Write the structure tokens for this entry.
Amino acid sequence: MELWSTGIHIYDAYKKEYFQLWAMLFCTINDFPAYGNLSAYSMKGKKACPICEENTHSIWLTNCKKLAFMGHRRELAKNHPYCKNSDLFDGTIEDRKLPPPLDEETTLSKAANINVVLGKKGFGPPKGIWKKKSIFWKLPYWKHLRVRHCLDVMHIEKNVCESLIGLLLNIPGKTKDGIKVRRDMELMNIKLELQPEDIDGRSTKFLPPACYTMLKVEKTKFCQCLHGIKVPSANIRKLVSMKDLKLLGMKSHDCHVLMTQMIPIAIRGILPNRIRHTITKLCLFFNIIHSKVIDPDVLDEYQRDIILTLCKLEMYFPPSFFDVMVHLVSHIVGEIKACGPVFLRYMYPFERYMGILKGYVRNLNRPEGSIVEGYASEEVIEFCTNYMDEFKSVWIPQSRHEGRLSGQGTLGCKSGNSNVADYQEVHFNVLQHTTSIDLYIQEHMSLLRQQNRKRVQNGWQNNIKKLFQNG
Ligand SMILES: [Zn+2]
């Protein structure tokens, strides 16, 4: 609040003068449970989605004893054939209107009147979806922000990846398929061909294979493909257990690589076409949203695509697959519209640094103290070694840039003489890939079209080349 209202007096070492520094809290970013703590929204129960709030659509699965967040058909066009098809989805015909987006005044009015005094009887958190008035509401600009708390795409991607792989490989304990969900499907009166069947003389039931069930041969093929991949970015091979045909110990970055690159390759030639295409579409969506440059004009198309993909997944996968994490995928594009590309809000650097800090822990009873002590001693020793140039330090991590920045780099450099034609070719290539040139090319093309239609189609590139080369 101080940084917003009065600012602080601070010294600029470059200009060698004092100036007033102001700052604002643009948004917070946490994993899902911490999102709940900071925003004071209840992330449990029927209305678990903090973006849909009251309009969250959920179904209670009696046998699984959990909630499924389906109902993405609501966001399709009204006359879409999926809306009238009840058997393939959650057993209902979709005729609801898409609720209007919630405005900040409504949210504030709901949260403003909650007065929670910790430790006092009768003043505990209320039963509704809002638990308290978050301290952030004291910031004067907070109610005007379109996105106050960002979704953590890294964790969403990890959860979706784990659910998907658990389901496809039918990993015990991880799979979302099983007798309970099959019974729930029976209760919902959907996909009746998948009902558990009795086996003569046995107490266990037979679960008919669904469209996403992989045969052992297919599982082996899938695991073999992942086991054989050699890439510098992630060691996927070590995650694959060929003996049990499952993936173990996936970290966030492994899930990121799997989701964006590997799964579409690994499922080639296995599973029915429609399932494979839908999974590939989901992976493609994750691949696209991680790109550094996103055209705002195509975001609406991405949103339509991901909703359609989620609807198709609803059609093929069991209801238990749709936990709140899968539902949150439908809100990612909305946040990109408001806050820019996803990579600007990554959790990766923080998680990585937390890994370094955790490395300092020696006494598990006092982790914070260990971290402080370890960090401080390393800092002090590093500082001291600056004064001891002639000694070689031991056990102190050395910066990989140390000693490499002075002088002129020659590694990997090739020198040669180029003629004018080569130079112009390179120059043209660079120009061709520069977005700011697009406008001029379009203008030039329309001019050429007016002059001679046939010649343009045959050699438009040569025409532009000449134009650029002539200046
Ligand atoms: Zn939602």
In short: The first helix runs from residue 2 to 5. The pocket of zinc ion is lined by residues 49, 51-52, 56, 327, 331 (CB under 6 Å). The CA atoms of residues 157 and 256 lie 7 Å apart.
